[in-house]
Specification:
mainly beta; four-stranded antiparallel sheet; 41% strand
C-alpha cells in the first residue's frame, strides 16, 4: 500500500497539517485547528494514529486536544490537569508523548501528568515535584517548563524529562522517584567555580537515539552534548559547530550516529541563523564531526529562529527532515538534509514540528 506523510505543526494560532505522498514532492496544507488556541506541541501516537495537541496559556488555561481522524475533527480535555490547592496553577501544556498505551504531558510550571484513557482525564505524577531540589528550580526565558519527554520504548518505567532551567531528570520506576542526570553539562551563567552543578542546567532539547543503546543527545543553552549511558554522564560534541547555542535536535529514525541540528548565533546575539545564512547541521558519527547542509535554504537575510520542538524526521527511506521557523515557514528535505524545499510560508510562529506516516 502507498504511504501518506503528515507534518504536524503547532503554532501560536492553532494546529496545522501538511500532507504528501511518499515522494514528498507536493504538499497540501490543512488548518488551522484547535480553535486557533496557542499550541506548543502537536504530536501523534504512531500505534493508534491519534494526534494530540498540547496547548493553552494564562487566558485559556491548559488542555490537551485530540483527533482520531487525522485532524478532521478535534476535542479537548483539561480534566485532572491541575496541581493541589495552594500551588501555582498550571498555565499551559508544553509537550505530549504517547508510549506503551499511555499519554504523558509536560506542563508549566514544570510537572508531569499521565493519562490512561487517551487524554480524557489526567493524573499528576507527583514524584517529580517532590524531588528535594524542587524549591531551587528557576525558570528559563520561557518560564519554568517541562518541554522534553523521552519514554524508553523498551521499558515504560524509564522516563527522561528536560526542564528549563532545572536540567535533565530520570526515573526508573515510572515516576515515583527521580534523579538529576546532568554530570558534565556546563552552566556558563553561573560563577566560574559552580559551572557543573548537580541540577540547574538550561536544557533546550533532549532526544533519544534509536537502537536501545541508552544514547541521548542534548542541545543545551551552553553547548551540545551526547550521553552513552542514559544521561548519567555527558560529553561535549559542539566542536565543529558554528555556535554552542541552539534549540532543536532530531535523531535519525534508524541510525544512532546521525543527528540533525539547527544552531543559532548565540544567546545575546539575536538568536537567529549564524551570519543570517540558514543551515541544518548534520553528523554521521555521533557528533565527532559536523557538516552544514544548505542546499535550498536561504543564504542571505535569514534572520529567523527555530524553536526547541520545531524540528522532526520521518521514518521513510531515506528519512525526511523538517523544520519550522519563527516567521512561519516550513522547510522539508526528502534526502536526509541533502537538499531542502520550502513547503509552507506565512503561517503563525511555529512552535513544534512532528511527523506521522500512515497507509494512504
Amino acid at each position: 500500500m502507498s504511504k501518506k506523510v503528515m507534518v504536524l505543526l503547532g503554532t501560536k494560532k492553532g494546529a496545522f497539517i501538511l500532507e504528501s505522498d511518499a515522494a514528498r514532492a507536493d504538499w497540501r496544507l490543512r488548518g488551522p485547528y484547535c480553535e486557533t488556541w496557542p499550541m506548543n506541541h502537536v504530536a501523534a501516537d504512531p500505534a493508534t494514529g491519534a494526534i494530540y495537541g498540547a496547548g493553552g496559556n494564562e487566558w485559556f488555561g491548559p488542555a490537551v486536544w485530540k483527533s482520531t481522524d487525522h485532524g478532521e475533527s478535534w476535542s479537548h480535555s483539561s480534566q485532572g490537569l491541575a496541581y493541589e490547592p495552594g500551588q501555582e496553577p498550571i498555565s499551559t501544556v508544553w509537550s505530549v508523548a504517547a508510549a506503551h498505551g499511555r499519554l504523558y504531558a509536560g506542563v508549566q510550571p514544570a510537572g508531569l501528568f499521565v493519562s490512561d484513557d487517551g487524554g480524557e482525564s489526567w493524573s499528576h505524577i507527583d514524584g517529580l515535584q517532590k524531588h528535594p531540589s524542587r524549591p531551587e528550580w528557576n525558570p528559563g526565558g520561557a518560564g519554568l517548563i517541562l518541554h522534553s519527554l523521552v519514554v524508553d520504548p523498551q521499558d515504560a518505567k524509564r522516563i527522561w524529562v528536560g526542564i528549563s532551567s532545572a536540567g535533565v531528570f530520570h526515573t526508573q520506576d515510572g515516576g515515583e522517584t527521580w534523579e538529576p542526570r546532568n554530570t558534565g553539562v556546563r552552566c556558563d551563567y553561573f560563577p566560574e567555580d559552580q559551572r557543573y552543578p548537580e541540577f540547574g542546567q538550561c536544557v533546550h532539547c533532549l532526544v533519544m537515539a534509536p537502537g536501545g543503546s541508552g544514547r541521548l543527545y542534548q542541545q543545551n543553552h551552553c553547548g551540545m552534548y551526547r550521553s552513552d549511558d542514559g544521561g548519567r554522564s555527558w560529553d561535549s560534541i559542539e566542536a565543529g559547530l558554528p555556535s554552542s547555542f541552539g534549540f532543536p535536535a532530531a535523531t535519525h529514525p534508524r541510525d544512532p550516529e546521525t543527528l540533525f541540528l539547527v544552531p543559532l548565533n548565540g544567546d545575546i546575539a539575536g538568536r537567529y541563523m549564524p551570519d543570517a545564512r540558514a543551515a541544518v547541521w548534520r553528523t554521521r558519527d555521533g557528533g565527532a564531526s559536523w557538516s552544514d547542509q544548505r542546499q535550498g535554504l536561504p543564504q542571505q537575510n535569514a534572520f529567523f529562529n527555530v524553536l526547541r520542538q520545531a524540528m522532526a524526521v520521518d521514518a521513510l527511506e531515506p528519512a525526511g527532515v523538517y523544520f519550522g521557523t519563527g516567521s512561519g515557514e516550513v522547510y522539508a528535505s526528502a534526502d536526509e538534509a541533502g537538499s531542502f524545499t520550502r513547503i509552507a510560508e506565512h503561517l503563525p510562529t511555529i512552535s513544534s514540528v512532528e511527523t506521522l506516516v500512515v497507509e494512504a
